[in-house]
Amino acid sequence: MKVEDKNWFNVFKIALPLCISYIPIGLACGILLHSAGFNILFTGLLSIMVFSGGAQFLIASMLVIHAPLLQVLLMLFFLEMRYALLSASLSPFLKKEPVPFLIYFSSSMNDENYAINYLKFATDKKWNGHQAVMVNHFSLLFWTISNMVGSTVGNLIHFDVNLVNFTLTALFGYMLVMQIKNLLSILVASLSAILSVWLIIAMRSTMGLVVATLVSSFLGFLIEHGLEGRSNPLLLRSLRLRRRHEGFKDSPKETTDDHE
C-alpha cells in the first residue's frame, strides 16, 4: 500500500466515529428540510454550503413560518459567528499555510471536525493541514449524503411540519443547558428570554430575537468585564471556578481574595 493511501485511510479511521454520528442527525435534518420545501438537490447544495446542523435546522424552522429572508440571514450570521473564534484557535497550527488553503479549509469546518483537528494538532506533532482537511471532507461527505437520504425518505413518509418548531426549540434548549456553567450565564439567558418576549410583542416581529440576543450578549460582556478586579462577589467567584475547571490559573491576588 502506498504511503498516500495509508495516510488517507488512517485519517478516515480517526474521523469515522464522527461520520457515523452524523447519520441519524443528518437523516432527521434532511426530512425537516424536505418538509420546508427543499428537494434532494437543494438539500445537498445547502448541506455543502452551510454544513451546520444548527443552522440548517434554523433555516427549516424559519422557512416553515415564512420568515423574511433578511431575518433568516441575520439569525444565521449571529448563530455562525462562533466559527470566527474557532478558526482563530487553529491559526497557530496553520500559520505556514497559504491564504487560498486557509479559505479552502475553513469552508468545510464545523464544530465537530474542529474538535478532532484541534485535539490532533495539540497532541500529534505530525498532524498537518492536509490531514485536517481530509477530516473536514470525510465529515462533510457523510453529512451531505445523510441529508440527501433524509430528503428522499421525506418523500415516502408523512411528516407533521408543526414538529419542526418543537425540534428547533429542543435543539437550542440543549445548547443553552450545555452553556450554563456559572451564575452569570443564567442571568444572561434569563435576560435574553425576557427581552425576547417583550421585543417580539413590542416590535410585532421575530426580529426582536435578534435584538434581544445582541443586547443580552453585550450586557453580559460588560458585567463580566466590570467584575474583573472586584473583591469576591458571587458572580466573580463562579467565573473563577469555571476557569479553574477549564485549566486556567488565577492570579495570586485573585487566589488571595478567594480565601478571604
From TrEMBL:
Name the domain of life. Bacteria
Query: Subcellular localization, per the record?
Result: Cell membrane
Name the residues that span the membrane: 12-34, 156-176, 183-201, 207-227
The protein's predominant localisation is membrane
Instruction: Give the record's membrane topology.
Output: Multi-pass membrane protein
Per UniProt, the keywords (alphabetical) are: Cell membrane, Membrane, Transmembrane, Transmembrane helix, Transport
Q: Its family? A: Belongs to the AzlC family.
What protein is this chain from? AzlC family ABC transporter permease
The organism encoding this protein is: Loigolactobacillus jiayinensis
